[in-house]
């Protein structure tokens, strides 16, 4: 049963972009919900309100919603939405102006049309969305001010009261549901944008922007708490040669593998980022000079162990030089720590590469 529900909700979502998938799923769900509510109404007309003819007509109208699911299945999304909203308006008009009188409160359901259209139509479908909403508003006003003299079924006052109350409740539920879905949509998009703006596209590591933003925050906090921390600046050796010899794509693959290795070495609470072409940085919170040197050595060794086999069968090896700095003298800023780590890194390159040099060692020797 659940599988059937899931496959109906997923109708027409294959190979669509994520926003269209969301909207199509929402429409399919709404169609199913409408069918369910309409069936519940038919059952109550039949057994509670004793109006079998109304129940039958209502079921015939309800079957029309399946066409919307068919349009979704055929990927005619605009047609699916337009048909759904048009049919729901026709359905309400027939209920309020043929089956019963406006005292049944069915015309209050017209409010669902602008809410649904706002959620389900794309921004560029403004005209269609506005037209449907205006038609719904006009029909509401018409029904509110017109009394059907010859209804198919005359309800008692209590039944009319019950029906109009149920319309209010469904309206309220729909507004809450729409707002919840809407805010979820916004939140999801916002999180996606934040992630995109802070991630390096090639390697998936944090990017330079995020590193500086979060690094400053982290260091200000640690400086205030008088806690020690270290910074590792890692630069791959002779990377230009790898690009020149094996091609840019192999160079890219190498950067990805190195990034994975960096993420897997050292403590979990580190801040690791790609801050330049073949340059990476790691901030190690609560980490003094000795521990930083041990971790840096693990990082160096992890990079050295990487071997990449190209499609031509060549083995590519890489190595990295690492400069370390600490907040030992005064509460250094991130910029100062990077400058110190850069001096140490330069020394590591100068000494022959594939090694770790600490700024602390340089200044104390
Ligand atoms: N494949 C690839 N290469 C990149 C990327 N970003 C920068 N590079 C290359 O990285 C190389 C860096 O070269 P250099 O600065 O000379 O450094 P190096 O060859 O590693 O030499 P040393 O640092 O002195 O050991 C350049 O050839 C850049 O084109 C990237 O995203 N992908």
TrEMBL record:
Domain (GGDEF): residue spans on this chain? 227-361
SMART domains to which the protein is assigned, alphabetical: GGDEF (SM00267)
Cross-referenced CDD domains, in alphabetical order? Answer: GGDEF
Catalytic activity from the UniProt record: 2 GTP = 3',3'-c-di-GMP + 2 diphosphate
User: Mind listing the UniProt keywords for this protein, alphabetically?
Assistant: Membrane, Nucleotidyltransferase, Transferase, Transmembrane, Transmembrane helix
InterPro entries xrefs: Diguanylate_Cyclase, GGDEF_dom, MASE7, Nucleotide_cyclase, Rev_trsase/Diguanyl_cyclase
EC annotation from Swiss-Prot or TrEMBL: 2.7.7.65
The EC class name is transferase
What the entry lists under Gene3D superfamilies is as follows: 3.30.70.270
Query: Which GO molecular function annotation, any one, does this entry have?
Result: diguanylate cyclase activity
Transmembrane region(s)? 27-48, 54-71, 83-100, 106-123
Per its record, how is this protein called by name? diguanylate cyclase
């Amino acid at each position: 049963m659940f599988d059937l529900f899931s496959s109906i909700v997923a109708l027409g979502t294959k190979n669509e972009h994520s926003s269209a998938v969301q909207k199509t799923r929402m429409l399919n769900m709404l169609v199913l919900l409408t069918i369910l509510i309409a069936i519940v109404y038919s059952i109550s007309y039949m057994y509670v309100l004793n109006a079998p003819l109304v129940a039958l007509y209502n079921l015939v109208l309800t079957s029309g919603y399946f066409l919307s699911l068919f349009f979704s299945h055929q990927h005619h999304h605009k047609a699916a939405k337009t048909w759904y909203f048009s049919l729901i308006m026709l359905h309400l008009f027939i209920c309020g102006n043929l089956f019963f009188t406006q005292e049944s409160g069915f015309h209050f359901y017209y409010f669902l049309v602008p809410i649904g259209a706002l959620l389900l139509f794309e921004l560029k479908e403004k005209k269609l969305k506005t037209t449907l909403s205006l038609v719904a508003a006009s029909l509401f006003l018409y029904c509110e001010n017109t009394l059907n003299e010859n209804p198919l079924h005359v309800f008692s006052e209590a039944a009319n009261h019950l029906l109009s109350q149920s319309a209010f409740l469904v309206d309220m539920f729909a507004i809450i549901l729409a707002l919840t879905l809407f805010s979820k949509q916004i939140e999801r998009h916002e999180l996606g944008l934040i992630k995109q703006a802070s991630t390096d596209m090639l390697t998936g590591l944090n990017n330079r922007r995020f590193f500086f933003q979060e690094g400053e925050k982290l260091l200000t906090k640690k400086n205030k708490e008088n806690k020690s921390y270290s910074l590792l600046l890692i630069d791959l050796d002779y990377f230009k040669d790898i690009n020149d010899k094996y091609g840019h794509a192999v160079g890219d693959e190498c950067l990805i593998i190195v990034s994975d290795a960096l993420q897997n070495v050292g403590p979990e609470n580190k801040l690791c980022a790609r801050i330049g072409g073949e340059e990476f940085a790691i901030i190690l919170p609560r980490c003094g000079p000795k521990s930083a040197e041990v971790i840096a050595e693990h990082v160096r060794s992890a990079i050295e162990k990487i071997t990449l086999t190209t499609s031509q069968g060549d083995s590519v090896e890489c190595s990295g030089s690492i400069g370390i700095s600490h907040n030992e003298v005064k509460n250094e800023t991130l910029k100062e720590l990077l400058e110190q780590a850069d001096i140490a890194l330069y020394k590591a390159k100068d000494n022959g590469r594939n090694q770790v040099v600490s700024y602390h060692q340089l200044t104390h020797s």
